[in-house]
Design a protein that fits this description.
Elements: E1 3-8, E2 11-20, E3 23-32, E4 65-72, H1 76-98, H2 105-116, E5 127-130, H3 131-137, E6 146-151, H4 153-162, E7 167-175, E8 181-190, E9 195-203, E10 224-229, E11 232-237, H5 240-248, H6 252-265, H7 269-278, H8 283-292
Parallel strand pairs: 6-9
Antiparallel strand pairs: 1-2, 2-3, 3-4, 5-6, 7-8, 8-9, 10-11
């Protein structure tokens, strides 16, 4: 055990490691900590990528949550730093996810852009904003709960360096539901009590790249647009991506807001057709999405 037991946000936390040569699997553990941890917890941790282990955890028992990372052993101090920040901001993230606490999106995004612009001129970072935050930047009436970044394989590590002070998960190989095994990281940009979660990853499956995929990790695959933020031009993914996801999640109000944005920008019908064909929507629901951008 590297750290713990530590209390917070309704959970009892521990950090453990299993070393295999120069590579180490680090595990965040979180179990119900009861009143001693200011609990009970307000909600499950799967929204932040945690999973239940297939068998009872020797530290946290059958109801322990896990996040696991494969990272070089020499990065142990960095993992400790990420673990501690994760614990300190977890209450804020849980309140945002389950209690309607506001996400300091504009402030956090401003700090994020400032950090990304500090990249050395000789090593520019390949990045764009995706998900609902991309639609928000384009003017859609949506309220994002986090900031998703698209990047390349090299960009994953570059972003980790630029956002090192804010990392809540180390840059490394990890299982990232529902995307499978990825190289990625998470950060919480802001203070312990106010900010926004930032996430980025690239699949390590060489066969995972589909045409027009939003998160392929390969430049030029995703369809992008440009948004303006405080006088800066920000690369963002097309709103058709978020539109189809909102339809899959059964969120009619968000579908209407995103369809209005797609109409205003002018639909990318090729992209929309590919995304609908790839979606799990029934034929009638796909037709409804198409109608929504033609109204």
């Amino acid at each position: 055990m590297l750290s713990g037991p530590d209390l917070g946000a309704g959970f009892l936390h521990q950090l453990t490691s299993e070393r295999d040569g120069d590579r180490t699997t680090f595990t965040y553990h979180a179990q119900d900590g009861g009143q001693d941890a200011n609990g009970p917890p307000k909600g499950p941790l799967d929204v932040f990528g945690f999973v239940r282990p297939p068998s009872p955890c020797q530290f946290g028992g059958p109801r322990c949550w896990h996040r696991r990372f494969l990272v070089p052993f020499v990065e142990t101090p960095r993992v400790r730093q990420c673990y501690n920040r994760s614990r300190f901001v977890l209450q804020t993230m849980i309140d945002q996810a389950y209690s309607g606490a506001p996400v300091a999106l504009e402030t956090a995004f401003g700090e994020l852009v400032e950090r990304l612009e500090r990249a050395p001129g000789s090593a520019p970072v390949d990045w764009f904003v995706g998900g609902s935050t991309a639609a928000w930047l384009l003017g859609a009436a949506v309220e994002p709960h986090d900031i998703d970044l698209g990047t390349s394989r090299a960009g994953v590590d570059q972003l980790g360096s630029l956002l090192a002070d804010y990392l809540i998960e180390p840059v490394g190989t990890t299982d990232w539901p529902p995307h499978g095994i990825v190289r990625g990281a998470r950060a919480f940009v802001g203070t312990f009590v106010s900010g926004a979660r930032v996430e980025w990853s690239v699949s390590l499956d060489p066969d995972a790249t589909a045409p027009l995929s939003e998160w392929s990790g390969r430049p030029g695959v995703a369809r992008l647009a440009s948004a303006s933020f405080r006088g800066r031009t920000i690369p963002v993914s097309r709103p058709e991506y978020s539109l189809v996801r909102a339809a899959e999640k059964g969120r009619p109000e968000r579908v209407r807001a995103l369809a209005e944005l797609v109409r205003r920008l002018g639909p990318d019908r090729e992209l929309l057709g590919v995304l609908l064909e790839r979606s799990r929507l029934a034929p009638a629901a796909r037709a409804a999405v198409l109608r929504s951008v033609d109204e």
